[in-house]
Amino acid sequence: MNKLSLSDGEWKLMNLLWEKSPLTIGDMVTALKEDTAWTKATVNIMLNRLSEKGAVRIDASGPRKRYTPLLAREDALRQEAKNTLSRIKTGGLGLLISTMARESELSDEEIDELYRLLKEGRQEHD
Length: 126
Prior knowledge:
It is a single chain. The mean pLDDT is 87. This protein starts with 7 loop residues before the first helix and ends with a helix. The protein folds into two domains: 8-69, Arc Repressor Mutant, subunit A (Orthogonal Bundle), CATH 1.10.10; 73-125. Strands 1-2 form a two-stranded antiparallel ribbon. Helices cover 62% and strands 6% of the residues. It is mostly helical. It has helices at 8-19, 25-31, 40-52, 73-88, 92-103, 108-125; strands at residues 56-59, 66-69.
């Protein structure tokens, strides 16, 4: 999936589908009822967009369409990270990581994981 970008709303739908699928439009509207005011029409439009992007498969074989993710969560996260880094460009990586570390209140385990990943990255470039 080359340069796939998901909107905030599409992330909400994909997160639902990654947690449990297949789902119908009605299932998704119900699940998002407290978080959004989306109608079935709104969800349908976004799901069709996700299908066109190759992120969701639509199964219309039953009485109600059912939606399943084709895009793996890890692939979406990887692409989102690439998109973010390309927007930030030179000099922004340190600020990005320090902001993430401060704002997300990383646990000791998460900080250790970040150190490990940075060391691995250095070894790959040496």
